[in-house]
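Dear colleague,

Thank you for sharing your sequence with our group. We've completed the structure prediction you requested, and as agreed, I am returning the results in plain text so they can be pasted directly into your records. Please verify that the sequence below matches your submission; if there's any discrepancy, let me know and we will rerun it promptly.
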Amino acid sequence: MYRTENQNKGNQTPYYYLTHTNSKWSFEQYKALVMDLSKKKEYGLSKKKVRNLLYSEDITKADVLRGFINRNINDTSYAARVVLNTVQGYFRAKEMGTKVKVIRGSYTHQMRVNMKLDKDREKSYAHHAVDAMLIAFSQLGYEAYRKLQGEFIDFETGEILNSEKWKDQMSDEVYKQYLYRKKWSNIRNEITRAEKNVKYWYYVDHKSNRGLCNQKIRGTRVYDGKIYKINKLDIRKKEGAALFKKLAFSEKESDREKLLVYKNDKKTYEDLVRIMQDYSDSKNPFVQYEKETGDYVRKYAKKHNGPRIDKLKYIDGEVGSCIDISHKYGYEKGSRKVVLESLVPYRMDVYYKKEEQTYYLVGIKQSDVKCQKGEYVIDEDAYAINLVKEKMIQQGQKRSDLESLGFEFQLSFYKNDIIEYEKDGKIVRERFLSRTMPKVKNYIETKPIDRAKYEWHDRKLVGLGKTKRIRKYRMDILGNYYLCNKEEFSKYC
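Please find the predicted structure tokens below.
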């Protein structure tokens, strides 16, 4: 019951949910339970946790929301103060005489505005370097201020020595003119030039003792001899309603068949479609239907008393790499599967077959790594299975047979290694992410070096079987590249 209530609550506070819905609980009952649990040491509820659980203000009101925001700002300020004190303490202990100052974000933001330096977080990571340069250059602004106001202000005490002259000279226009004329016109050119030459460094992930998968449990269905994973959409959420509309109103029968309600319960499906059509002008037709009718969206029944519909199951693609955990749910072998999907990738090995002038890419998953005599190593049997999948060896053969078959080991790539290859006559250099598609030969997933992701219309998967070269670059923390043409195979992690 607790789990169901929590799902229905969503992102609302417990107080708001329990006082604005037809919940089986009252807020008083809930409060009594929380207070009872707080007295029991085994539950470990802190005073702050109890306070959050019993928070009774309406966060939909602007002033309350501002309070939340201000508290977050204060937390950030505290963290900044801790860092400042730590750095100041270091230089004092070393007797280095170095002064450490804090530059407010509002000041650097104003510098950006004045110099017309746009901040696009999606374009690249270079905005971090620009912010750092602005912080460095901001000292020049402070020095300009001191020079301009030095005869009117005692900077040691903060006393204004000549209030009349200070008021006359303290106009924003005078200050700006001085600063722009002497400094800022050149600063923008320096920053713009430097921004084009920003270097990047990434931590290459060699960690061998991680989780094997994303721990998300998926049910499955078998259609036409293929195993498909089943996902759920919440009809009361914007994304869920949009997905239902996309599938239900598609011209393709294959899209509609992805909805299990379409395959198994046509009358309920028709009711859902009708609601979507009748309330098409609203943000979420299902939510609007419940508001106007005072009733839930229900499974079809002659007396309209079917169970409430919260989520709908749909087919979410074919099952790839996964761990079968059906036995934990009492399913017999050969029956419907329950799986943990998305096995975590560990590394990719690159082989070259000179006879075919073709590269072969072998994906190694975290589940292929085992601990042996206190060391993490690649499981040879699991590695052989991967080689069979890539059609490099036959059943019964091992990795040791590769050399006699004409395969030469080249390189190993881990997450965030820099990979260089030739594609369509162009030399491309990117961050390696994973070899995650065992059913699609020699495809890898990459990310750009200078930003978090590609635009939606850009290529995300790359086939490298027939590329003319695959190279690897190592980086130091200053972003300098070092070419690596060839490595020795290592089974150790």
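Summary note from our side: The longest helix spans residues 62-93.

Kind regards,
the structure core
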